[in-house]
Amino acid sequence: xxxKFNISDAVRSVxxxxxxxxxxxIRGSLGSVFISKSQSSGIEYVYKFNHPAMALKNSxxxxxxxxxxxxxxxxxxxxxxxxxxxxxxxIPGKTLYECIGDGIxxxxxxxxxxxxxxxxxKMSQIDWRLVEKMKYxxxxxxxxxxxxxxxxxxxxNICSRTVQLMNIGTKSDRGLYHCGITPKxxxxxxxxxxxxxxxxxxxxxxxxxxxxGMMAAKYYQLRGQINNLIGQYxxxxxxxxxxxxxxxxxxxxxxxxxxxxxxxxxxxxxx
Length: 271
Known about the structure:
- By secondary structure, this protein is α+β, with helices and mostly antiparallel strands.
- The protein has helices spanning about 5-15, 50-65, 95-100, 105-125, 140-150, 155-165, 210-225, 225-235, 245-270, and strands at about 20, 35-40, 45-50, 75-80, 85-90, 95, 175-180, 185-190, 195, 205.
- The strands form three sheets. It has a five-stranded antiparallel β-sheet. A three-stranded antiparallel β-sheet has the order 6-8-9.
- The longest helix is centred in the C-terminal third of the chain and has 28 residues, at about 245-270.
C-alpha cells in the first residue's frame, strides 16, 4: 500500500464544507490515519487509508460486532483517486494508553480489563463462518499484509507463518476475535468505562487461546501477572483456556513486537 495519502481529496469527497485535518495523537507505523473536523458542524471523522479488501472486511466485521453488542466504529468504505479509505465518526474519549499516561490506578486498569473480558466472551459466541470466505478473514493473512506494509514482505511472510502456527487448535476454539486488544485500541469514555474497541484490521478468525494471548501480552506488561486474567475469564464465560499456550503466546508476542520496534527504529535512523 502506498505511504502517500491524498487526505484532502478524500475528505472533500465525503464531507461538505471546510474541514480542519490533523493526525491523531497516537499514530500508526504507516501514518495512514487522519482526523477531520467540520468547521461548520464541529463533527469529527476518522479516515483510515487501507487495502480495498481489508477495508471491506473491516466494514463487515464492524457490523457483526455491533450486532453482538460489542462497541466498535461503524465503518463506511470509500474509493477516491485510486485510493481506498475507511471513514467513521470519531468516538469520544481517550485511549487506555492515554489514560495510563494520565496516571489512572491499577484498580482502574483491572476494572477496564474486566469489561474487556466480557466483550471477549461475546466474541466467542459469534459464528465465524459469516466472514470465512472473505479476504483477510484469517489472522495470519492480516499479519502478513500489515507487517509487510510496515517492514517488508520477507518479514511479513515469516510473521504470517508464525501466527498461523500459533493459531493451531481445536475447531471448537475457533472464533471471530479482535486480536489486537491493546491500550492503544481501547477507547475509554468520560464515565471511565470502555466506549469502543478500534482498529478493525485486527478482527479475524482465530484460535481463542491465540487471541487471548495477544490481549494478555500487553496486560502482562502493565500488571505483571496474567493468571488472574485467565481465571477471571474462565469464571465469566464458563469456558476453559489453555494457560500454558496463552503464556507462551504472550511472551513470544512481546518479543516479536520488540523486534519490530527495533527494526523500524533502525530503518528510520538510516534514512
